[in-house]
């Protein structure tokens, strides 16, 4: 199946660059049309397409089928009248995503923003990446002529998947039913710290020790006797001496370990209940059809 895409550009050079990339991506030249106005300094040839002059009156009428609303056609018409250009391309489903990326990458205009801006008389609205800017036509089974797909276009948001775009084109809408699951994990959290710091403290101590002292005393004793009772000659030089001694305290220190302090970790486990809420989608179906109508479906 094939899709018809349309995109508005402020400058014809951006549009032509997008066309070159579309052709390089494998999209046939015959399936691409560029409708552009006149740039400043050029004569007005409104209705010029890629490689073909389209000035016949019915050309714009045939393009009207591409746009889903009259407002969308007027936005393209206004943009072209201001010197812009519109690309209309027909692509296969396999080329759809690539073609959309190419059209967006060359500064495609945000149609909704332009419509609001021009209706308010504020001039050109800014391009916002990610905003809806590409019009997407319905699926067709044959290659359209002159690059224009028959049928009315249905502009889609670029955020939709291809399956969602298919369902929207066929009038089908799906409501997702979701349910949350609770997953409880673990992580290591620091809860505190124990630090042991040692320091040296001096304190005065005292101890009594008994010391012995020796001293020399000189004593004179009066005597009266003859020298015959003295063994030695009294009249000669003599020297006697005695040494005094005493004890003094000697201090020495010996370090002795009196206690040991150790740090060790004790590992235990505890059970903690985690409570939270999870969401899920509940579906309420209101069917007010009659039993006959229900049987037909």
Tell me about this structure.
The chain has 297 residues and is an alpha+beta fold. It has a domain at 2-169. Helices cover 22% and strands 9% of the residues. The protein contains 7 helices and 6 strands; from the N terminus they run βαβββααβααβαα. The protein has helices spanning 12-24, 58-63, 70-81, 96-105, 111-119, 162-169, 291-296; strands spanning 2-9, 32-36, 48-49, 52-53, 85-92, 134-136. Helix 1 (12-24) packs antiparallel against helix 4 (96-105). The protein is rod-shaped, with a radius of gyration of 54 Å. The two termini are 28 Å apart.
Short descriptors:
297 residues; alpha+beta; 4-stranded antiparallel β-sheet; two-stranded antiparallel ribbon; 7 helices; 6 strands
Spatial strand sequence of the major β-sheet: 2-5-1-6
Q: Uncertain spans, ≥5 residues at pLDDT below 50?
A: 43-58, 122-132, 141-159
The structure class reads alpha+beta
Rounded average pLDDT? 75
The main sheet comes to: 4 strands, antiparallel
* Gyration radius, in Å: 54 Å
Topology:
Layout: E1 2-9, H1 12-24, E2 32-36, E3 48-49, E4 52-53, H2 58-63, H3 70-81, E5 85-92, H4 96-105, H5 111-119, E6 134-136, H6 162-169, H7 291-296
Antiparallel strand pairs: 1-5, 1-6, 2-5, 3-4
């Amino acid at each position: 199946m094939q899709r018809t895409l349309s995109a508005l550009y402020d400058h014809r050079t951006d549009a032509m660059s997008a066309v070159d990339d579309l052709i390089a991506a494998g999209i046939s030249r015959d399936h691409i049309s560029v409708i552009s106005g006149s740039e400043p300094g050029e004569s007005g040839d409104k209705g010029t397409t890629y490689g073909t002059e389209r000035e016949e009156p019915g050309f714009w009428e045939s393009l009207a089928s591409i746009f889903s609303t009259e407002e969308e056609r007027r936005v393209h018409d206004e943009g072209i009248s201001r010197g812009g250009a519109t690309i209309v391309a027909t692509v296969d489903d396999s080329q759809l995503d690539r073609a959309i990326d190419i059209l967006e990458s060359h500064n495609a205009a945000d149609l909704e923003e332009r419509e609001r801006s021009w209706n308010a008389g504020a001039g050109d609205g800014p391009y916002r990446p990610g905003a809806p800017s590409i019009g997407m036509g319905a699926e067709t089974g044959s290659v359209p002529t002159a690059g224009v797909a028959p049928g009315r276009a249905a502009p889609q948001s670029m955020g939709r998947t291809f399956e969602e775009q298919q369902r929207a084109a066929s009038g089908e809408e799906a409501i997702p039913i979701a349910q949350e699951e609770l997953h409880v994990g673990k992580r290591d959290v620091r809860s505190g710290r124990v630090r042991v710091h040692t320091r040296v403290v001096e304190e005065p101590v005292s101890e009594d020790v008994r010391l012995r002292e020796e001293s020399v005393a000189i004593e004179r004793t009066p005597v009266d006797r003859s020298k015959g009772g003295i063994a030695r000659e009294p009249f000669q030089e003599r020297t006697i001496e005695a040494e005094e001694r005493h004890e003094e305290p000697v201090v020495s220190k010996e370090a002795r370990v009196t206690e040991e302090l150790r740090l060790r970790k004790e590992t235990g486990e505890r059970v903690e209940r985690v409570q939270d809420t999870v969401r899920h989608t509940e579906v309420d179906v209101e069917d007010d059809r009659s039993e006959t109508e229900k049987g037909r479906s």
